[in-house]
Amino acid sequence: MSTQFSFTLNATDGAARTGVINTPRGAVRTPAFMPVGTAGTVKAMMPESVRATGADILLGNTYHLMLRPTAERIHALGGLHRFMNWERPILTDSGGFQVMSLASLRKLTEEGVKFSSHIDGSKHMVTPERSMEIQRLLGSDIVMAFDECPALPAETKVVEKSMQLSMRWAQRSRDAFGDRPGHALFGIMQGGVTPELREESAKALVDIGFEGYAVGGLAVGEGQEAMFGVLDYATGYLPADKPRYLMGVGKPDDIVGAVKRGIDMMDCVLPSRSGRTGQGWTHRGSVNLRNARHKDDPRPLEEGCGCPACSNYSRAYLHHVVRSDEIIGSMLLTWHNLYYYQTLMQEMRDAIAVGNFAGFEADFHARRAQGDIPPQ
Amino acid sequence: MSTQFSFTLNATDGAARTGVINTPRGAVRTPAFMPVGTAGTVKAMMPESVRATGADILLGNTYHLMLRPTAERIHALGGLHRFMNWERPILTDSGGFQVMSLASLRKLTEEGVKFSSHIDGSKHMVTPERSMEIQRLLGSDIVMAFDECPALPAETKVVEKSMQLSMRWAQRSRDAFGDRPGHALFGIMQGGVTPELREESAKALVDIGFEGYAVGGLAVGEGQEAMFGVLDYATGYLPADKPRYLMGVGKPDDIVGAVKRGIDMMDCVLPSRSGRTGQGWTHRGSVNLRNARHKDDPRPLEEGCGCPACSNYSRAYLHHVVRSDEIIGSMLLTWHNLYYYQTLMQEMRDAIAVGNFAGFEADFHARRAQGDIPPQ
Question: Quick count: other Cβ atoms within 10 Å of Cβ A198?
Fold first, then answer.
C-alpha cells in the first residue's frame, strides 16, 4: 500500500482514461463512481455492503457533518473513517456548495460565507481556512478547495466574479491545507459555460498546483448538452497526469458521456436516493418498482445482475416492499443501484483498457434503447 | 434433515425445558425466540442478517399477508419462504388476533369474522377453514389454529364464551388442516386468568390433538404478574412431549419468566420495533440512544457483544444516526436487539442443559439491577 497520494494513468482511448489513484487507505480504480455518505452513512446501506458493490471510495459532506455531529466530535472519536466504519478512502466536499443550497441567511464576503444551520438555526462561518480545518478534523483523504458556485443560467459577469473569488479562495485553501503526506487537495475549476473563463480558472489552479482538479459549476441546472459542451473543451485545460473530478454527476448516460470526455471521478446521490423511492437502474434504463405491472412478476429486477436484490428476490417482492414502505425496499434497491453503477464503471474501465470505449458506448445506448423487459 | 415434524426434549430444570423442534426446513432450538416478519420482512433487516443473529424460525402475519400482497399471489410466486428469501422454518399466526386489533367494521359470528382492511377498506371474511387455506398457500411450517382472543380485563362469562367458540374453531381448524406431513398445526389455549377455563380449554385441545400448543390470550393488557400467575399452572395442563408457545411475548424479563414456567417458543415485535425508535436492549437493561449522554461516548452499546452494531460502532455514532433519522440507525439497533434476544435464548438453553437455570436467572436479574454503564 502506498504511503503517498499518487495517480497512475494506465490507458487512454480517445479522451477517455483509466488508471489508479493510490492512497495510504487503498487504491481507487478510475473512472470511479463515489457513493455519497452525506451524514456519516450511505443511506440504507451497511458500509461493508457499499464495499461489496465495488466502491473504492466514498464522499462525505462537510456541510452536514460540521453541523451534526460536528467535525470536532468526529475528530475526538478517531476521525470519520472509524466513526462510520469505512476504512477505505474518503473524499469530502468543501461545504461551499451545500452552504449555498441548504443553509439559510447566507452572507457571502471576501472572507467566506456566514449562514444559519438548516437543522437548528445556529450561526456558522465557513472560510477557506475553516473548510481546510474541518476536512482535516474529519480525516478526509481527498480534500476539496473551498469555492463558490453560482446556479446556472447566470450572467457572464456574475460567473466571472464568482470564479475569480473561487480562485482567490483556492490559493487560501492551498496555503491553509499545509503539508499533509498521503492526503490530497483538489482545486475546483469554475467559469460556467464560458470557455475563456474556464481556461482562466484552469490556469489559475494549475499555477497554484493541486493533486487533482475538479470541474465545478456543472450539474447545476444547465442540462446535459451544455454540460457535455463544457467538458468537450474544459478537461483539456487540466493537466493530463492528475485526476479530474466532475462533481455531482449523475445519471448513467451523464456518467458515460463524462468519462468519454476525460473525467476520472464522479459522485451523485441519484443511485441511493432513487433507491429509496422505488426506482431501479438497469442496463435497459430505469424501472419504477411501484408500478402495478410488477406485482405478479417472478423475474429479477435485472437478469444476470449479481446483487442481492436480483439474486434473491422477484420484482413482485420488490414491488410489495416498496408499496408497503418497508425499509428492506430501500435497502435492496439502493444496493442494486450502487451495484449497477459500479458495474458500469468496471465496464468502462475494461473497455478503455482494451481500446474499445466506442464499442462499449454503442452497446450502452443500444441496451437502453430497448427499454425495460416487456411484461410477461 | 427430518422429513417429519417432531419435538425432542433434551433436558429439563424445574419447569424449564430445552429441546429441538425438527422440521423439513431445519431445526429450531428451544426455548426459541421468533423474530416477527410481519409483511414478508423483519423490518430493517436482510433475512441473512436475521439468521446471523441466531434465529432458527420467523413468524409471519396472516392478516397482513392476506391483504397485501395476498396469499394467492405469494403461492403463485412459490410460497412465503421463497418470496421473502428465508428458507428456514416459518410459523404463521391465524390472523384472528390482528383482525380484532387492526381491522375495522369487524363482525364476529359462529362462522368466523367479517372485516374491512385497514389498508384499503376492502371486505374480507376469515373462518377457521379460510385461515387454514391462507396458511397453506403461504407454505407455513407451523400453522396456528384460528381463534378469538378477548382483551383483558374481561368478565369471566365473556372469556368463557369466547374460549368455547375458540375450541369449536380449533376442531374446525384441525379438520380443515388435513394431512400435511412435515407441517404442524398448533392449538391455542384460551380462558383468560381463570384456572378452570384454562383447564377446560387445554382438555378440549388435547382431545382434538395438535402437534404443539400455544398459550393464547396473554400479553393483552393483564400485566406481567397476572401473566406469570396463569403460566404457573397453565403450562401444566399441556402435554409435556409437545412444544408450548407463548404468543406475543415479550420483554427480556417476560421471556425469562416464561421459560422458567415451561414455555418453549415465543415471538414479539419488541426487539425490532424498539430498534427503530432508538432503543437498545442489553444485559443491563434498555438504553435510549437518543439521549444526549451518548453523543461523545466512544464505547459500544454493549461491551463484548458480537453484533455488528457493537463490534464496529460507538454509542456516539448510534446516537448520531438515530438523531439524524438515518436508516442505518434502525438497521444497527434492530440487529443488536435481535442478537441480544438470541443470545439470551442461548444462555437459557445452556443453563437448562446443565441444570443451572436458577444460576442463570440470578445473574440475569443481577446484571439488569446494575442499570446501564455510567457515563464516562
Answer: 26
- Could you tell me the three cell numbers for B120? 384499503
Does residue A320 sit at the B interface (CB-CB below 8 Å)? yes
Task: Assess whether B296 carries a catalytic annotation.
Answer: no
3-state secondary structure of B13: strand
Buried b (16+ CB within 10 A) or exposed e, B162-195: bbbbbbebbbbbbebbeeeeebbbbbbbbbbbee
What residue has cell string 468543501?
A: A94
**How many other β-carbons are positioned within 10 Å of the β-carbon of residue B370?**
11
Which are the contacts of B131, defined by CB distance < 8 A and separation ≥ 6? B62, B94, B95, B96, B145, B146, B173
Quote the mean pLDDT of chain A.
Answer: 96
| Count of CA atoms in the C-beta half-sphere (13 A) of B141 | 25
Q: Is A267 a catalytic residue?
A: yes
Q: What percent of chain A stands above pLDDT 90? A: 93
Q: Distance (Å, rounded) from C-alpha B142 to C-alpha B148?
A: 19
Beta bridge mates, A32? A265
Query: Given B56, B93, B141, B147, which residue is catalytic?
Result: B93
Give B45-61 pLDDT, tens digit per residue.
Answer: 999 999 999 999 999 99
Catalytic residue among B13, B254, B264, B267: B267
By CA distance, what is B332's nearest residue in A? A46
The answer to whether residue A152 scores a pLDDT higher than 70 is yes
Cα separation, B92 vs B144, in Å, equals: 6
DSSP code of residue A373: P
Contact B63, B113 (CB under 8 A): no
DSSP secondary structure string, A8-53? EEEEEETTEEEEEEEETTEEEEESEEE-B-TTSS-TT--HHHHHHT
Is B39 within 8 Å of chain A by CB?
A: yes
CA A341 to chain centre: 12
**Peptide bond preceding A250 in cis form (omega within 30 of 0):** yes
Residue A130 CA to residue A133 CA, distance in Å, equals: 5
**Phi, psi of A229, deg, nearest 5:** -60, -45
CA distance A336 to A271: 9
C-alpha B312/C-alpha B318 separation (Å) is: 11
